[in-house]
What does this fold into?
Amino acid sequence: MTALEQYSRLEATGLWREAPDAQRRDVLVSLGDATLMISTLSEVALAHWSLPAVARLNPGRRPALYSPGADTEERLEIDDPDMITAIETVRAAIDRKRPHPGRLRFWIGAGLAAAMLGLAVFWLPGALTRQTVALLPEASRAEIGTRLLQEIGRLAGPICTNPRGSTALNRLARRTFGEGAPRVALLPSSVPETLALPGGILVANAGLVEDHETPEVLAGYLLAEDVRRAETDPMLTLLTEAGLGATFRLLTTGHIAQDPLHAHAASLLSRDTPSVADTPLLTGFEAAGISSQPYAFARDPTGESVLALIEADPMRAQAPAPLLSDADWVSLQDICGR
It folds into this structure.
């Protein structure tokens, strides 16, 4: 153990007392490599204190009062600021080199606390949301989806409900998806091309029937949205945006407030529609027995960006049956009329 280089052999005067009943003596204090040496003014050695054991008895006060250890009665009083600074600097350097079991326990505890906080902040909300989605009954999903559809209708315009058009739309959904087809709702052109809502509800822009010549275009957009719905549960998206409070309330009470639904409806109406991979989409066209070409050319009239959908059309060498009769198609195109 050595003292710091700049303080080697520093000397100052002080007052030393060997015992509580002894008289204080003027002494010369020398700071050595590993000891504090106390001697008379004529340099006769009186004591050698080990620097690692030296204790400050009155921190922050002057003159500084030291002892050679916790259980000793010797006392050394120093008023010289340079010597006090030197002793405190050396003591601090020595203390840093000592093992600190309590400090290790502190850092281990702090690390565990930080890990738990990280789990609470980053893992718990996602885990609670996924658990809530997994436990939510279909009836609750359908009720939430219906409320969300009504909120979208209030923001974007009323749902198109012409009776004959609605009947034709239901036939198109069953022809595209088979039994257990999702509920499909058409809204005015202020909504995105398609949206998926909880409870098996698909929303489509009425322009997909009003601005095209065949029902295969709408069917293709619905199949694409169904692929998105399979990849990302709309209920999970809703609760992720709604936050932990709304999710916990839904898990414990089975109810979600209107404000989160309103915010999510506005978010759905303003977001871009993500792209869909060609392979699962073509699988959907094949399962439905529908040509993918009308949908592809509706997306890109040049065909350049949808070439895979055109060339890999599962009905390319076949003559699929019409999706709807002419009468139903006319009714569907007039679904937003009175």
Residues 93 and 206 are 78 Å apart (CA to CA). DSSP finds 13 helices and ten strands in the chain.
